[in-house]
């Protein structure tokens, strides 16, 4: 491996500590969906996070073993697991890589959408209905409203029993807020509806989000070592206060036991009313597990940089193990503290659900005043930057290695003089500009998340099964760290548990077609792979990709010692998804 960029190779400039700091952007992912999961899981929300985190930690041991087997590859667990499927189908291997990429990549757009919301709130706040400017506006304009004013009539019709005076006051206050809202908050250059997908919003959130993406791109342009240094200091600044947020309410007795006992799902999504463990309740719980996995499993990105480790034999396991321990702490503490203090009703506040009010909530959890709260708002923006940088670093390397292994177009294999995969980074950026337009309103945000997670659960299913396939087919490959066999077995079972989450959970987020939209997007790898493999490479894989499997002839994919078992695993996984999608139904 070259030690300098410009040769088409990554640079070995990282140890496990550097990868740990790059992966330190994963704990803030809890803040992306903490409100949404509280909405669908109710009082069971913090339990969802804990169970999901334990699953993610167990699964990481399979990924750690596979990462050590391919010390000269980057791109993460999906790349290492794809090698196991290569013998059984040329299509399954690139599907694993593709699904991992389109699951991780949207962190850029989703994170930038939330960060843009924070910046807009800080610079161009929407006034509160009880703020003095709004009260002054109402006082000056109240005489213009009567019981016959169309808006007042409509308000009374929609709120039966409301007295005319109360309706006039409510309508006037709403008009006052609208009149005093900065124009930039409602500005939109265009809105384009794409049938079957959603609406692209080119608004102020979109513009600010694109600027933030370009800033992060510039930081990562200088290579992984530079990125790790930036991540280290940003992580220290962000994670220490975030840890205090989890600990202070517990140590000061601020946790209300009523908020974390009588663990039941709600009667319906975002109802805030305790339900029961019937089919509808279990469906909501599994839907929460489905989305939580997108965050809690994410520290597997720590092994995206194997080809950039100075000593992959030792760095690989340490990077993912210690990153996992870090995530266990945060994914246990933060949801418990939030729910324990705020309760279900507090967790359903609009600012918690869409992410833009998390900073204020963090300040409130430690009992801080306005100054402390403002500090937490700034820290929240840094936390988002941390997560976004982690996502861009990992997802771009997945594209890079997919190109080097013959699955994705050749141009993605280019690196610059610093050893950064810039062609893959530009591709990531362009894809996320599109997603940012889709996610620039609250409805689009969770739609993007629900679809991208179809890819992530699919990747995890394929990769957890890849662990035992590698054991059977590639016993000759060196394993610097070998997982206990019992863990490989447990993680194989968890692969099918994840399939259950996928079938039952994708529908929970308000988009009945999310599962099928995600499946269609996953299928887009077929024309991409066909072009690379059959047009560019004339039906052969690169020689280096075959040598990684210990195969000298790149026309021979080696013996299939596992026989029909991988195909049976695929069939069983598909059956679990389809059965769960049929059996589990949302509350009436």
Folded structure, characterized:
The chain is mostly helical. The chain has 24 helices and two strands. It has helices spanning 16-23, 30-41, 45-69, 77-85, 92-104, 107-123, 132-141, 150-158, 164-180, 183-186, 204-220, 224-251, 279-296, 312-347, 350-353, 358-365, 370-404, 422-438, 442-473, 485-505, 514-523, 525-536, 543-547, 565-583; strands at residues 188-194, 198-203. The chain has a two-stranded antiparallel sheet with strand order 1-2. It is globular. The N and C termini lie far apart (59 Å).
**Secondary-structure-derived class:** mainly alpha
On the 0-100 scale, what is the average pLDDT? 87
Binned, the helix content reads 55-70%
DSSP strand tally: 2
- Can you write the helix and strand succession as a string? HHHHHHHHHHEEHHHHHHHHHHHHHH
Instruction: Name the assembly state.
Output: single chain
How far the N terminus sits from the C terminus, by CA atoms, comes to 59 Å
Major pleated sheet: 2 strands, antiparallel
Number of helical stretches of at least 4 residues: 24
Unreliable spans: 1-7
Task: Determine the strand fraction and express it as a percent band.
Answer: under 5%
| CA-atom Rg in angstroms | 25 Å
Shape: globular
Strand order of the largest sheet: 1-2
């Amino acid at each position: 491996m070259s030690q300098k960029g410009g040769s088409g190779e990554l640079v070995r400039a990282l140890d496990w500590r550097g990868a740990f700091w790059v992966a330190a952007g994963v704990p803030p992912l809890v803040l992306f969906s903490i409100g949404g999961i509280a909405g669908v899981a109710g009082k069971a929300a913090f339990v969802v996070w804990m169970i999901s985190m334990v699953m993610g930690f167990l699964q990481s041991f399979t990924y750690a073993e596979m990462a050590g087997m391919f010390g000269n590859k980057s791109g993460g667990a999906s790349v290492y697991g794809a090698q196991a499927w290569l013998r059984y189908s040329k299509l399954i291997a690139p599907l694993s890589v593709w699904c991992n990429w389109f699951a991780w990549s949207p962190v850029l757009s989703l994170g930038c959408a939330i960060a843009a919301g924070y910046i807009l709130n800080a610079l161009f706040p929407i006034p509160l209905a009880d703020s003095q400017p709004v009260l002054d506006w109402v006082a000056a304009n109240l005489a213009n409203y009567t019981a016959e004013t169309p808006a007042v009539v409509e308000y009374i019709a929609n709120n039966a029993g409301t007295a005319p005076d109360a309706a006039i006051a409510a309508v006037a206050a709403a008009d006052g807020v609208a009149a005093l809202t900065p124009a930039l908050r409602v500005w939109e250059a265009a809105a384009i509806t794409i049938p079957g997908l959603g609406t692209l919003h080119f608004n102020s959130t979109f513009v600010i989000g694109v600027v933030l993406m370009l800033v992060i791109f510039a930081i990562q342009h200088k290579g992984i070592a530079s990125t790790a240094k930036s991540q280290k200091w940003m992580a220290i600044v962000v994670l220490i206060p975030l840890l205090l947020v989890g600990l202070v309410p517990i140590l000061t007795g601020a946790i209300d036991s009523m908020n974390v006992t009588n663990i039941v799902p709600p009667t319906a999504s975002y109802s805030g009313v305790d339900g029961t463990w019937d089919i509808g309740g279990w469906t909501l719980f599994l839907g929460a597990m489905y989305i939580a996995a997108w965050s809690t499993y994410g520290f597997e990105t720590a092994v995206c940089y194997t080809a950039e480790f100075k000593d992959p034999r030792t760095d690989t396991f340490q990077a993912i193990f210690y990153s996992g321990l870090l995530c266990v702490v945060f994914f246990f503490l933060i949801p418990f503290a939030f729910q324990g203090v705020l309760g279900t009703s507090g967790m359903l506040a609009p600012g918690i659900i869409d992410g833009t009010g998390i900073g204020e909530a963090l300040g409130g959890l430690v009992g801080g005043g306005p100054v402390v709260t403002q500090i937490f708002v700034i820290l929240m923006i840094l936390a988002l930057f941390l997560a976004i940088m982690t996502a861009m670093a990992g997802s771009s390397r997945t594209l890079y290695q997919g190109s080097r292994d013959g699955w994705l177009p050749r141009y993605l294999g280019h690196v610059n003089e610093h050893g950064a995969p810039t062609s893959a980074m530009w591709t990531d950026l362009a894809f996320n500009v599109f997603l940012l337009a889709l996610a620039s309103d609250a409805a689009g945000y969770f739609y993007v998340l629900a679809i991208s997670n179809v890819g992530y659960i699919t990747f995890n299913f394929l990769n957890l099964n890849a662990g035992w396939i590698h054991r059977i087919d590639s016993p000759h490959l060196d394993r610097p760290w070998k997982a206990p066999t019992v863990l490989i077995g447990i993680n194989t079972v968890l692969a099918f548990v994840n399939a259950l989450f996928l079938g039952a959970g994708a529908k929970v987020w308000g988009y009945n077609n999310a599962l099928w939209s995600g499946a269609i997007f996953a299928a887009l790898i077929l024309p991409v792979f066909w072009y690379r493999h059959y047009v560019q490479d004339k039906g052969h894989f690169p020689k280096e990709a075959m040598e990684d499997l210990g195969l000298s002839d790149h026309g021979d994919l080696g013996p299939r010692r596992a026989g029909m078992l991988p195909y049976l695993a695929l069939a069983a996984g598909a059956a679990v998804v389809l059965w769960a999608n049929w059996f589990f139904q949302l509350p009436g």
